[in-house]
Amino acid sequence: MTVGRVSLPPVHNSRADGCLLPSTSAAVVACAEEKERCEREMAALYRIAQVLADRCAQRETLREILGVLDAQLELIRGTIMLLAPNGEQLHVAAAHPDSSGVVDTAAYSPGEGITGEVFATGAPVLVPSIAAEPRFRDRIHVRRLRSADDAGFVCVPILLDGRPVGTLAVDVPTEQISRLSGIERCLTIIASMISYDVRARRIEHEEQESLRAENLSLRDALEERFRPEHILGNSHEMRRVYLRIRQVAPNDTTVLIRGESGTGKELVASAVHFASGRAKGPFIKVNCAALNENLLESELFGHERGAFTGATHERHGRIEAAAGGTLFLDEIGEFSPALQVKLLRVLQEHEFERVGSNQSRRVDVRIVAATNRDLEKAVEEGHFRQDFCYRIHVFPIHLPPLRERRDDILLLANHFAEKYGSRMNRPIERISTPAINAMMVYHWPGNVRELENCVEHAVVLSDDGVIHSHNLPPTLYMPKQQGIVDSGSLKSRVAALERDMITDALKRNAGNAAAAARELGITSRMIRYKLRNLQIDCSTFPST
Fold first, then answer.
1. CA 429 to mean position of chain CA atoms
2. Which of 162, 179, 460, 544 sees the fewest Cβ atoms within 10 Å?
3. Rounded CA separation 538/483 (Å)
4. 419-478 pLDDT, tens per residue?
5. Which backbone phi and psi does 217 adopt, to 5 degrees?
C-alpha cells in the first residue's frame, strides 16, 4: 500500500512585537533596522533631555537640540521658531548650526506658509515632497528644490497650555520619507520638551523682571532719603541752574554751589550726584559748620587707634566712606587753613592720611562743595587760602535767592501745601489770594527753607482746606528790613513799592485802612482805590 504525501501550507509564525520569526533574511534585516531606529530615537531623546537640563542660553540650547536631530536621527535643516514678544509673528529662535545660508531674520505670520499654518491651527503638517508643495515658502534655508534633490518636510507645533508658542520643523531625507508619521511622533515629543523649557524660562524671566522692578523700587525709596524728589522752579534763573547741572553731572569735575542759606544747595548737590556715573555709589554729606576743627578733621579723614584721648579704635572717615561716590561738603567756607591744606591734597592727588597715621591712602571720590560766604573776600582777609579757593572753584553753580525768582513762589507754596497737607491728613484745596499776595510781597530772607516752614505753619492752622493769610506766621507781617530787588519795569516797581508801603502801614495799624491812609498822608478814598487795584485785603491783617 502506498502512503500518499500530504502537502501542508507554509506556516508564518510571528512574535508579539510584530517581527516575523527568522524565516527569511529580509524579515531579520527589517526587524533589526526597526530596533536600531527605536534605539537611536531613545538615545536622541535622552540627549535632548540632558541638553535641556543643562539650562544654557536659549538659542544655544535650541541649536544643540537641532544638532542632535541631525547627528543621531539624520533629520536635516532643523528650525525652531518662537512667537515674538509682540505676539504678531514667528521669528527664528534657532537654526541648525551646520546649515549654510540661514536667514536668521526670516519671519512668518500666523497662517502664512506651512509654518504659519501649523502655528495657526496647532496641528502638525507632513509634506512628502517639498518641491511639489505650493504652500512651501522656503525663507530660512537655502534649498535647490529640484526633484533630484527632493526631500520631505515635517513641522509640528510647540504648545504651551494648549496654545501654540512656536514650531519645530525638519527636512526629511528621501530614504526616510516613508517614515513621516513616526518622525512626526518623535518631533511632537521633542516639541513638548521644548515647551516645558520655554515655560520655565518665561517664569524665570518674569521673576527676574519682578525682582528688578522691586530692586528699582527699593533703590528709589532709599535714594529718596538722600536726594529730593525733584527741584521745583520754572523761572529763567532756575533753568540756568538746571543747565549747569546737566553740563557738569556726567564728569568728575569738582563743583562749588554758591547761594544764600536756604536756597537748596544740598538739593543741587544731590541732583549732581544722582545724574552722574557715580549714582550707584554713596552720597555722603558733611556739614562743616557743625563741628570744630579737631572733630571735623577726624570726621573727614578718620583716625587710628590711640591717635588722641578717647580714640579706642580706628575709624574710617567720611572721605573713605564716600569712595566710588560723592562727598558733599556743606559750608566749606568754615574750613580752617590747616584743614584746607589737607583737603587740597585730596582734591589734587586723591590721597589722604588718617589722624595719627603716616600711611597715605588713595581714594576715588568726587567733591561737591557749598558755601554761602563770599570766598573772594575771605581770601583778601586771609581767612581762606587762595590756592584752595581756586581748586574748589572749578565749576561754580549759583543758586539765586527766592526774592530773585518770585515766579516760583506760588509753585513752591502749592508743592509744600500738598506735601504737608497729605502728611497731616489735612487736604489743602487752594491758597487764598490774600495769602498769595502776602507771600509775594515778603522778602524771604530764609529763602525756600523759610517758605516751606511758613506753609507748614499755615497747614497746621488751616481748618477748611484753604490757606488764608491769617494762617501764615506773624513774621510775614513784620515790616521789611531790606528792600526787594526787582528787575521789572518802572510801572511794576512803582506798584511793588506802593504795595510794600501800604501793606506795612496796614500791618502797623492792624488792618485799619483809614489809620494807614493818615500815616501815609493820603485820603481814605485814595487808599481804597489802591487796595482794590493791588488786591490787598485789610481783613487779613491780624490785630497787634
1. 33
2. 162
3. 22
4. 999 999 988 988 888 888 889 888 898 899 999 999 999 999 988 888 988 888 887 765
5. -65, -45
Q: Are 368 and 269 in contact (CB under 8 A)?
A: yes
* pLDDT tens, position by position, 97-125: 665 567 777 889 888 889 899 999 999 99
Q: How confident is the model at residue 543 (pLDDT cuts 50, 70, 90)?
A: low
Contact assessment for residue 12 and residue 20, using Cβ atoms and an 8 Å cutoff: yes
Output the CA angle 434-435-441, nearest 5 degrees: 90
pLDDT at residue number 451: 93
Given a contact cutoff of 8 angstroms between Cβ atoms, the answer to whether 397 and 269 are in contact is no
235-291 pLDDT, tens digit per residue, is 888 888 888 888 898 888 999 999 988 888 988 998 899 888 898 999 999 888 777
Which residue matches cell numbers 573772594?
Answer: 376
C-alpha to C-alpha distance for 170 and 96, rounded to whole angstroms: 10
Would the pLDDT of 51 be above 60? Answer: yes
67: its cell numbers? 544638532
Cell of 281: 555709589
Q: Are 384 and 378 in contact (CB under 8 A)?
A: yes
Please tell me the distance from the alpha carbon of residue 501 to that of residue 180, in angstroms, as a whole number.
100
Q: Please name every residue paired with 156 in a beta bridge, in sequence order, or none if there are none.
A: 168
Secondary structure of 284-318 as H, E, C letters: EEEEHHHCCHHHHHHHHHEECCCCCCCCCCCEECH
* Amino acid at site 32: A
Q: Which three cell numbers mark 457?
A: 505753619
Over 80: is that where the pLDDT of 303 sits?
A: no
Burial of 309: CB neighbours in 10 Å, binned 0-12, 13-18, 19+: exposed
Contact 425, 459 (CB under 8 A): no
> Across all residues in the chain, what is the average pLDDT?
82
- 237 grid coordinates: 534763573
Q: How far apart are CA 286 and CA 332, in angstroms?
A: 9
Contact 414, 230 (CB under 8 A): no
- Set of cell numbers at residue 388: 584752595
Question: Any idea which residue has 526633484 for its cell?
Answer: 147
8 A C-beta contact, residue 226 and residue 327: no
As a whole number of angstroms, the distance between CA 166 and CA 164 comes to 6
On whether the CB atoms of residues 295 and 318 are closer than 8 A, the answer is no
pTM value is 0.47
**What pLDDT score was predicted for residue 448?**
92
pLDDT at 398 over 90: yes
Compute, in degrees rounded to 10, the torsion defined by CA atoms 519, 525, 530, 536: 80
**Structural domains for the chain:** 30-203 (3.30.450.40), 236-400 (3.40.50.300), 403-540 (1.10.8.60)
